[in-house]
Write a structure and sequence with these properties.
Blueprint: H1 5-19, H2 22-27, E1 35-41, E2 50-51, E3 54-55, E4 57-61, E5 65-71, E6 79-85, E7 88-94, E8 101-104, H3 116-133, E9 154-156, E10 161-164, E11 167-168, E12 175-178, E13 184-186, E14 191-199, E15 203-211, E16 214-224, E17 231-232, E18 237-241, E19 251-258, E20 261-263
Parallel strand pairs: 8-10
Antiparallel strand pairs: 1-5, 2-3, 4-5, 6-7, 9-12, 10-11, 12-19, 13-18, 14-15, 14-17, 15-16, 16-18, 16-19, 19-20
């Protein structure tokens, strides 16, 4: 082999190793509501990184390089975004994705246009849930390929533009699984229970912190089986499927949040559709 080809071959092999790495293949879906994987180099210790002023999940991939796993809010427009790490700005590109509409009829008009008393309750509950989403613990997630929290078909995908009784509301920020009332809900990865409650829209709800800003929310439960501070193993039961809150029938609504951005849970179970 000519000498000048050897460095090129080594470079190609190195690039292919990065391009084919498992976590990147699984998670790198850089669209609004998706996830970007950004290379942080192969330093001896874990670097820190932030996006929009918030800390992001950093893991070591294949025992070689550090990567930032960045949640991209649904509101982000396609184009260049940046994270900050070690005093540097690192860019990544956000592509486009079209989300379809969903039209739902709700019998309880208060769940479409709440009165002043219910609005005050909703605002209080939203503040409580926002604080939970913004928690950032140092633990490493036990697994990034998540298990499905229930055995059942997907009934509503992430990102739907939702219209309740003909009025547009916030996009669908999670995945819905069709399941019978009482079906056990299992933690898709190990984590700590950081919030439980019975909320106006979400009904009976559980938040689980998987580590470094990677947080799951499970709502519309019929029963909650855990309390704040409980440690859940991967596969641990946290409650049962129900139809509490704003729900038209029994199902599980599952949110995944990264750096306080709600992202498509389908990415973490290998079911993402471009």
């Amino acid at each position: 082999m000519p000498r000048f080809l050897a460095p090129l071959l080594l470079l190609c092999l190195t690039f292919n190793a990065h391009a084919d790495s498992y976590i990147t293949r699984l998670l790198n879906k850089p669209v609004p509501g998706g996830v970007a994987v950004v290379d942080l180099g192969n330093g001896a210790s874990a670097p820190s990184a932030t996006y929009q002023g918030k800390p992001v999940l950093v893991v070591k991939e294949d025992g070689q390089r550090w990567i930032a796993i960045v949640g991209i809010p649904l509101s982000i427009k396609p184009g260049t975004q940046q994270i900050e790490s070690a005093g540097q700005r690192l860019s990544f590109q956000v592509g486009s994705k079209k989300y379809v509409e969903q039209r739902i009829t709700i019998k309880n008009q208060q769940q479409v246009n709440p009165n002043a008393k219910n609005l005050a309750r909703i605002e209080k509950e939203l503040a409580e849930q926002t604080r939970a989403y913004r928690q950032f613990s140092p633990r490493q997630p036990s697994n990034l390929l998540f298990d499905k929290p229930v055995n059942g078909p997907l009934s509503s995908p992430f990102g739907l533009r939702r219209f309740f009784n003909g009025e547009e509301r916030n996009p669908h920020s999670g995945l819905d699984f069709a399941a019978n009332r009482g079906t056990p809900i299992k933690a898709p990865a190990a984590g700590t229970v950081i919030l439980v409650g019975d909320y106006f829209f979400n009904g009976k709800t559980v938040f689980v912190d998987h580590g470094q800003g990677l947080i799951s929310m499970f709502c519309h439960l019929s029963e909650i089986g855990v309390k704040v501070g409980d440690e859940l193993p991967r596969g641990g039961v946290l409650g049962k499927v129900g139809a509490t809150g704003r729900a038209t029938g029994p199902h599980l609504h599952w949110n995944v949040s990264l750096n306080d951005a709600r992202v498509d849970p389908a990415i973490f179970i290998g079911a993402f559709k471009p």
